[in-house]
Amino acid sequence: MPEQQNIEWKQSWRDEYLQWVSGFANADGGAIYIGKNDNGDVVGLSNYKKLLDELPNKIRDTTGIVCQVNLLDEDGKFFIEILVDPFSSPVSYRGKFYLRSGSTNQLLNGASLEDFILKKGNLSWDEVTVPNATMDDIDLNAIESFKNSTIKTGRIPSIKESTTDDFILKNLGLIDDNGTLNRAAILLFGKEPTKYFTSAYLKIGKFGDSPTELLSQDVIESNAFELADATIEVLNNKYIVRDISYDGLQRIETPEYPFEALREALFNAIVHRSYQVTPITIRIYDDRIAIWNIGELPEQLSAEDLKKEHGSYPRNKLLANAFYKGGHIESWGRGTLKIIEECKKHGLVEPLIHEHGGGLSVTIFKDIYNEKYLSKLDLNDRQKIAIKAVKKAGHITNLEYRALFDITDRTVLRDVDELIKLSIFKKEGEGRATKYVIDISGYTL
């Protein structure tokens, strides 16, 4: 049996293995076996009596915790078992913190260490106070804008009777009784959030055929409460093309991407991102637009979970609370579902939501599997025409495929099976209800 999340084997003892005690204690607990090889076979210890006496004290003196240290034997070969319980408070080894992850022991530092310590204290990053920040750092117009939004939502009923900025900040948990502001206050309503958090901004880049061909870019610096609208304004004025049509004499302009989906993706990025490292980025290509924020999904969720009904686990609790009370988001984990819904209403395929680069990306496709893209694939003409037909109609059946080209069922199945293997089509339904739709997972970004 291989090593796993809660088991570690060591053939002999070295004091540096006390790091594993810290790692297990900071995770879900576990067992360290001394006198077993990498395959888990008992090789025995000649100094087991000495270790049995020394290890409990070494563990206590270097990590501050007490563990069970047991002597076991198998076929006359003695080995030692160290049982480590999980601890609610952080456990260090010589001032450093470790965390068991899979079968590895990770040294925590920088942003990962801060996140870990906050999590152990049941705090979110945005709840930490900023001692040197004052009300002079707060944009009072932004608070007034928030107040007007909240009056419309009715989510702070008492806000109509109070006009003080202090009341709003306290209601949102952004200022303590001593008048000290926290990180959320600066991010939400700060005049210059980047003064305190250098990555609290957003970058837009327009790219050519490759990620290295940058054609133009914009940087948007704003408080979190106004960042989404400021970004939508730049996208609308500079980057988003509108299709022009007429209904009689009435001119109709339809943006290539649904603004409601973009706005929702931005709200999600602002609320759930990690603010210690890098800004939110928007990458625009001819066929797609991708919004990415640093910060992995919480352990309760996967990218697939975001496509169905799921709970809400905000990384930044105070930001999420303010956005909810201001009417920008719901507290039901419906953000990604709304993005998918708005894309479908706009006639676009389901967006691609996936984790990469230590963060989460939402990619909305304008023209997936276009002529230029299909020309690079080893497909026959029928398959290329069928892909275009599915893009237009939303799906295709075996009967429709056969009628489109006047071919046999065997040929239809061969064509479709190849498209499914390439993850260009995916099957929905069974029997006569079977249909094939576009599968975005086969699209190479």
From TrEMBL:
<keyword id="KW-0347">Helicase</keyword>
<dbReference type="InterPro" id="IPR038461">
    <property type="entry name" value="Schlafen_AlbA_2_dom_sf"/>
</dbReference>
<protein>
    <submittedName>
        <fullName>ATP-dependent DNA helicase RecG</fullName>
    </submittedName>
</protein>
<feature type="domain" description="Schlafen AlbA-2">
    <location>
        <begin position="3"/>
        <end position="108"/>
    </location>
</feature>
<dbReference type="InterPro" id="IPR007421">
    <property type="entry name" value="Schlafen_AlbA_2_dom"/>
</dbReference>
<dbReference type="GO" id="GO:0004386">
    <property type="term" value="F:helicase activity"/>
</dbReference>
<dbReference type="Pfam" id="PF13749">
    <property type="entry name" value="HATPase_c_4"/>
</dbReference>
<keyword id="KW-0067">ATP-binding</keyword>
<keyword id="KW-0547">Nucleotide-binding</keyword>
<dbReference type="InterPro" id="IPR038475">
    <property type="entry name" value="RecG_C_sf"/>
</dbReference>
<dbReference type="InterPro" id="IPR036388">
    <property type="entry name" value="WH-like_DNA-bd_sf"/>
</dbReference>
<keyword id="KW-0378">Hydrolase</keyword>
<dbReference type="Pfam" id="PF04326">
    <property type="entry name" value="SLFN_AlbA_2"/>
</dbReference>
